[in-house]
Design brief:
The protein has 2 domains: about 70 residues, Alpha-Beta Plaits (2-Layer Sandwich); about 70 residues. About 55% of the residues lie in helices and about 15% in strands. Strand 2 and strand 3 form a beta hairpin.
């Protein structure tokens, strides 16, 4: 039997009012790229960074008058883990597709706009990469689109590097 990897879970409950802490938590969870297991339960593949990130969020929940707990767990089957990973990869795939479309659209923009778009899209690339635990194939297409945009901004190759 193949063993599954360890995941870190955050279980939380926040008061309905005020709604500000709930909105802030939702945005931070989205930025981390969590898998939503149930209402008030999210998961990330376990490592020091993800555990620390969820611990910080748990502290924020407690400070807002809610309850929170951090757990480590393993899916009981590899199929469950594959399902979690596939859901997370699909979410990143959509983000990479959107980035590639925006990079392609920026190719037709004036020089100054192309430069601004390249800076912004490189920032988005890095942000997506921080929450990309299971890289989808769309990552390569987004990287190629960013390279094409970088080449259009600096056709001599002076500033062309990796998509990162």
């Amino acid at each position: 039997m193949t063993t599954t990897g360890e995941w870190v879970l955050l279980s939380y409950r926040l008061p309905r009012e005020p709604s500000g802490p709930r909105t802030t938590l939702w945005r931070r969870l989205r930025r981390l790229g969590v898998a939503q297991l149930a209402d008030g339960v999210v998961a990330l593949p376990a490592d020091a960074r993800t555990r620390e990130s969820l611990e910080w969020l748990a502290d924020d929940v407690l400070a807002a008058g809610g309850t929170a707990g951090i757990w480590t767990a393993r899916p009981s089957t590899t199929a469950q883990e594959r399902e979690l990973a596939a859901g997370m990869a699909a979410a990143r795939a959509e983000e990479y597709r959107e980035l590639a479309v925006e990079a392609a659209a920026a190719l037709g923009a004036p020089d100054a706009e192309r430069s601004r778009a390249l800076r912004r899209l490189r920032g988005e690339w890095r942000a997506i990469g921080r929450r990309d635990f299971f890289p989808p194939a769309e990552k390569d297409a987004a990287a190629a689109a960013l390279r094409a945009l970088a080449e259009a901004v600096a056709p001599t190759g002076d500033q062309v590097g990796s998509a990162r």
